[in-house]
Write a structure and sequence with these properties.
Blueprint lengths: L1 H29 L3 H27 L4 H10 L9 H9 L1
Helix pairs in contact: 1-2, 2-3
């Protein structure tokens, strides 16, 4: 399940970057909200999936509060989810 979580974290990060740095500027600079509508729902679903998987892994892998908090914090930082795999690898060593 950890590999699936890493995949979801990568996809969530990509969708967040596209939404934040492409769709939102187009919406406000060109007045075209279509890209936000198109990317918003997939990003939202991936974000919810990321959090649900993080909660499941917290109990499955006995993460402490710090690890779980950092994994959740990385989900709201731009480019943060790209470092989840590396962080989890360091935590298990």
């Amino acid at each position: 399940m950890i590999n699936f979580f890493k995949l979801v974290s990568l996809l969530e990060g990509i969708s967040y970057i596209l939404l934040l740095f492409i769709a939102v500027p187009i919406k406000y600079l060109q007045g075209n909200p279509e890209y936000v509508k198109m990317l918003g729902m997939p990003h939202g679903l991936l974000f919810v999936g990321y959090i649900v998987l993080a909660i499941m892994l917290k109990y499955e892998l006995n993460w402490n509060g710090k690890t779980f908090g950092i994994v959740c914090l990385l989900s709201i930082l731009p480019f943060g989810t790209f470092f989840v795999g590396r962080y989890l690898k360091q935590e298990t060593v």
